[in-house]
Amino acid sequence: MNRIKVSQYNFVINLNEDSLLLYNSRNNNLIKLERDIYFNYVIKVSKGDVNLKTDDDFKKLHELGFFVNYNRDERGEILINFEKNKYCFDSLNLTIAITNECNLNCVFCYVNKENTYKLSLKNYKNIINFIKRYYDDYKIKNLFITWSGGEPLIDIDNIIKLSQEVIKFCSKNNICYEANVVTNAVLLDKETVKSLQKVKVSNVQISIEPTEILDSVSRPIKNTNESNFNNTYENIKNIAGLIPIVLRIALSKKNFNQIVGFAEKLKNDNLFFNKVNFALGPLHIPYLNSQLDYGILKDIFDSREYSKVYLIFMRSCLIKIS
Ligand code: SF4
Cα separation of 162 and 168, whole Å? Predict the structure, then answer.
């Protein structure tokens, strides 16, 4: 019989006396189950008293990575994969800032908007030539492009034109191509999503604040003090289900307390988890920007504080929405 152990990447979040959430941070699997079931398996595993062949529930938990074969070195596998990926030239990931123009004026924006640009013909050709040269050198099998800005959808015509040429090159050379867009969603309606999907954009990352008040302070519409929150949220609701959505929220001391409420709002609108996911990160200022109100610096978490509040968020959010 195979010896089994508990994955060292399991996190148990107690929901009540009877049930818990079990999360594996290595593979991102999350399930809700009865406490007794999980802890009975933990005890059985320590005694070598489980059988993968005859116990279907345990087999499922093993397949999901909550229990692993005893001789697996999970941390070692992560380190090996990390090193392998560093020297793997199979794939090319590009982030293309198609324009530095934007329809918002976020207080923490680090994009230099002094001389506005859209993609020039010269840059267009340089990007295509760079991909071709990279393919000649490394015979890549995968190409992934992130369209960003400024606000990339301001220049959607160039995204589509450039994508079409890249897609043609990729299909001729058997390269898997995929893309995503990082956007503030001001212009992201259903038609735009459909146009993006035609050029293989497979998900959208939307930056947002968790409430209208915070949005009007941090991310006002350009040349106004008004918030675009309701329009952004409406756009998210309209396109949810059409394309996977990742909400990027820069966590700070100002918005942290509102995030769980925002997750509940998404849940009430039947959006959370199945259609919309979070990608949280700490608010940081990559370089100090001339239009920045330096008061914002006091709102930034240091890395220790951030790791603590992130854990608090994950726990309370998971409990409230489960
Ligand atoms: S959405 Fe905000 S952070 Fe992004 S480019 Fe526009 S102003 Fe800058």
Answer: 10
105 lines ligand 1 (CB under 6 A): yes
Ligand 1 pocket check for 106: Cβ under 6 Å = yes
Q: Would you state the pLDDT for residue 310?
A: 86
293-302 residue pLDDT tens: 666 778 888 8
Label each residue of 145-186 as H, E or C. Answer: EEEECCCHHHHHHHHHHHHHHHHHHHHHCCCEEEEEEEECCC
111 CB near ligand 1 (under 6 Å): yes
- The domain segmentation of the chain, as residue ranges, is 4-75, 89-321
Per residue in 115-171, pLDDT (tens digit) is: 888 888 899 999 999 999 999 999 999 999 999 999 999 999 999 999 999 999 999
- The answer, yes or no, to whether any atom of ligand 1 lies below 6 A from the CB of 258, is no
Q: Which two tokens stand for residue 145?
A: 């492009």
Distance (Å, whole) CA 228 – CA 225:
10
Please state, in angstroms and rounded to a whole number, the distance separating the CA atoms of residues 262 and 292. Answer: 26
**Dist. CA 151 → ligand 1 center (Å):** 7
Q: Are 151 and 104 in contact (CB under 8 A)?
A: yes
Atom number in ligand 1 closest to CA 219: 2
Name residues of the chain where pLDDT drops below 50. none
User: What CATH number should be reported for the domain whose range is 89-321?
Assistant: 3.20.20.70
Distances (CA, A) of 34 to 7, 20, 119: 18, 6, 55
Atom of ligand 1 nearest to the CA of 103: 6
Q: What is the value of pTM for the model shown? A: 0.81
